[in-house]
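Replying to the earlier thread about multi-chain prediction with a worked example.

Input:
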Amino acid sequence: MNTIIAEAALLLVMALMALLTIRTQILRMAIVYMGIFSLSASLLYVFYRAPDVAIAEAVIGSGLVALLYLSALKRYRVYTIGVVGSNMPNISDKHILEIERNAVIHDIADFCVEREREPQTVFSQESIDEALLNTNYDIVIEEHDGGIRLYGHDENYLVDELELLFSIRDRDTELEVVRFRAGAGI
Amino acid sequence: MTEKSSIIATMTGLLYPFVVLFGFYIIANGHNSPGGGFQGGSVIASLFIARYLVLPADDFDMDTLHHVEKAFLVLLLLLPLVFIFPGLHLMYEQFNVPYLIAMNFLIGMKVSLGLTIIVFRFGFFREG
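Result:
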């Protein structure tokens, strides 16, 4: 009876960890969750009377694989900047060049290079709500009349530093930083 | 991971001998208890990888590691050829357990070297 409860608890932990792994915004946390997932799996193998498999799972699943992912994460350096706006009726190369000359995007790109990340700018016609809901932008820039709005995820620590950077520098354009949480609206 | 953490360094240094002991224990007792060459080998490999976490220094000669691993593979193929094929395992049954331990040891060494090579190649991979 006790074994059944322990098994059920372990299976629940595994399901929870799997969900957390895909739901979290911080990749480092996802790796940790995956390690816990592997450890519960190896404990479960002990209950299923497969201690051999349990040892292999514990060492490889939560040790070697986590480390491989960590060192891969060190190389993950692309930082996606999304530029959206309803005043982009037809995107042309000329238009994009014009936006790219925009000082704010330049500053963000410089900042990314400073932090050893490769900036990648994506222009799209979708509305800000769609952009925040559907795609995997690290930061979204929306131009509206007179100012620029910067949307960053609540857990994205680069956004804090960006906000600090822009608050130190004097800017002509009005800049507003908006944070949002996962799942919640703005 | 780039900055040094003295907590991780101290704890890894403390655990180092125990990890080696545990790895060899798993290998040596693999024939009649859970574990075996592969599991013990990966435990020993995790030792080298913990060292990589603490001190990411590229002071291993990768080519030598490759050659040693290949040598273990050759030994791994030769030992059954020498022991099993002539039927020695039927004639001298008292050597069966040492044979199993030797095979587990060879597998463990090969696995630990292989996993270490994989992780180090990956960790020190430079583009271009």
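Chain B is about 75% helix and 0% strand.

Feel free to reuse this layout for your own posts.
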